[in-house]
Amino acid sequence: MMETLHVALIGFGTVGKGVYESIGKQREQLEALLRKKVSIEAILIQNGEIKREVDDRVLVTTDVDELLNLPKLDVVFEAIIGVEPAHTYLSRFIEKGCHVITANKELLATSGNELRKLAEKHNVGLRYEAAVAASIPILSTLREGIRSNQIKEISGILNGTSNFILNECQVSGLSFEEALRLAQEKGYAEADPTNDVDGWDAFYKILILSDLVYGKQPEWESISRKGIREVTSFDIKKAEALGLRIKHIANLRLQKEEPVITVESVAVSEAHPFFNVTGVNNALSVAGNLAGNITLTGPGAGADPTASAMVEDLLSIDRNSTEPVYYSQIEKGNAVEEDFLLIGDDSEVRGLEVLPTSEKGAYYVTGKRSEVEALLEHSKASLYPLQGLTLNHSTSRLAVV
Ligand SMILES: NC(=O)c1ccc[n+]([C@@H]2O[C@H](COP(=O)([O-])OP(=O)(O)OC[C@H]3O[C@@H](n4cnc5c(N)ncnc54)[C@H](OP(=O)(O)O)[C@@H]3O)[C@@H](O)[C@H]2O)c1
Fold first, then answer.
1. Which conformational region is residue 300 in: left (phi greater than 0), alpha (psi within -120 to 50 degrees), or beta?
2. What CA–CA distance (Å, rounded) separates 311 from 26?
3. Tens digits of per-residue pLDDT, 330-360?
4. Do the strands 338-343 and 245-255 form a parallel or antiparallel pair, or are they unpaired?
5. What is the β-pairing status of strands 224-225 and 258-268?
6. Is the peptide bond preceding residue 259 cis, with omega within 30 degrees of 0?
């Protein structure tokens, strides 16, 4: 007789319900791949008053101890919001010897390394593919596809809502407020959009990548995290006139052997892999020292794409539940100069030597980020890192006149 894998779900919202339904939809294929039956034993929810459309034999409860006391439980899928009580719950399931699969990015950004060590100690798997960019298999690519590479840099459009808003501002000429309202009407943005438009969601995701790839994170206070509220329609039009698009990009790279993260709006040229990433899609670009630049694009949220990643995690756990922690070897990196698009009137950029563009009020400049930012500290000009365009550095160099 075929062995049975006993699973439980924590959370039955967009993601939890998506996992429940996906296991049902893909059951035949899943069980053939696992060579095991999959049985959903229980679901933990918060509001016991709501009727859930689930099989009668599935235990639905608001009491986590009822799940912990199940006679057989192999794997727990977690999809609730925030660090607590998810952290306490997952620690308890790991200590009990259950494999854990989670989509909770805030939890992982905060406690990922601690949970990974706990999982290693208890010889169980911890998987979280869905937490970074839903169905885009970025973690499995890093863990299995380019494992022998040194990872020099990863950048990503990691928040679909911000990408949608910037895209609507650019294509339809909407203001930030109008595009945000449209995103809310379409169900892409929450009533409180802070997590998305102020860069927190992308920030958590790039921190998870930093932990996975380099085994550590920069100090949170040292990270430049900017959202998209400051990007004006005027800036978007100026950039567009120069053949550039403003994209919200989270970036992870090494400087002096330490991971450095920025989360900010960037001006990208047509040559950049993110130029044509539109709508609510996500994209990730990874630079490996052997593999070169790899770009992955796809849906970064939604019930089915997120469930897809979590069900794949189930297969991955079954294949190799106690896989050792993966870190890319750290290669020496140096502080580098960057190129920027600077938008402002002549008086705002006075004192800087910049390369004029074909657009009045738009300039290119090259320099070390901290120096450029310091020189613009009291200016109202907008500064966007510039990517995908090669400047003539002898003429774009930053200097005080
Ligand atoms: N939505 C996406 O596309 C997406 C994509 C990737 C990752 N994620 C992550 O996945 C997680 C879930 O997101 P979601 O969109 O599915 O949220 P959601 O629709 O708001 O659902 C949250 C679920 O968690 C349950 N819950 C909340 N607190 C609980 C507690 N203390 N104990 C037990 N159950 C509790 C809720 O119970 P009730 O039903 O009783 O209220 C609800 O079923 C989040 O961490 C999110 O960041 C979401």
1. alpha
2. 9
3. 666 566 789 999 999 877 777 677 888 999 9
4. unpaired
5. parallel
6. no
> How close is the Cα of 45 to the center of ligand 1, in Å?
9
Backbone angles phi, psi at 325, to 5 degrees: -60, 140
Take residue 368 and report the two structure tokens written for it: 């070390």
What does the DSSP assignment read for 55-107? -TTSEEES-HHHHHT-S---EEEE--SSSTTHHHHHHHHHHTT-EEEE--HHH
Stretch (H or E) spanning 283: strand 281-288
**What are the DSSP calls for 100-155, one per residue?**
EEE--HHHHHHHHHHHHHHHHHTT--EE-THHHHTTS-HHHIIIIISTTS-EEEEE
pLDDT tens per residue across span 12-60: 999 999 999 999 999 999 999 999 999 999 999 999 999 999 999 999 9
Could you say which of 3.40.50.300, 3.20.20.300, 3.30.1050.10, 3.30.360.10 is the CATH number of the domain covering 138-299? 3.30.360.10
Q: Whose CA is nearest to atom 11 of ligand 1?
A: 79
CB atoms within 10 A of CB 185: 9
Q: Where are the domains of the chain?
A: 4-128, 138-299, 338-396
Helices (H), 259-392: 303-319, 369-375
Measure 46 CA to ligand 1 centroid, in angstroms. Answer: 10
Q: Is the CB of 61 under 6 A from ligand 1?
A: no
| pLDDT tens per residue, range 79-94 | 999 999 999 999 999 9
CB of residue 88 inside a 6 A radius of ligand 1: no
Are the C-beta atoms of 14 and 306 separated by less than 8 Å?
yes
CA of 160 to the centre of ligand 1 (A): 18
> What are the angstrom distances between the C-alpha of 394 and each of 22, 126, 166, 367?
56, 49, 32, 11
Fold (CATH) for 4-128: Rossmann fold (3.40.50)
309 Cα nearest atom in ligand 1: 6
Instruction: For residue 18, give the ligand 1 atom closest to its CA.
Output: 16
Q: Which residues are marked as active site?
A: 205
Give the rounded percent of residues in the chain with a pLDDT score beyond 70: 95
Q: 138-299: same fold as 4-128?
A: no
Question: What is the DSSP annotation of 212-266?
Answer: HHHS----GGGSEE--STT--HHHHHHHHHTT-EEEEEEEEEEETTEEEEEEEEE
Specify the amino acid at residue 235: D
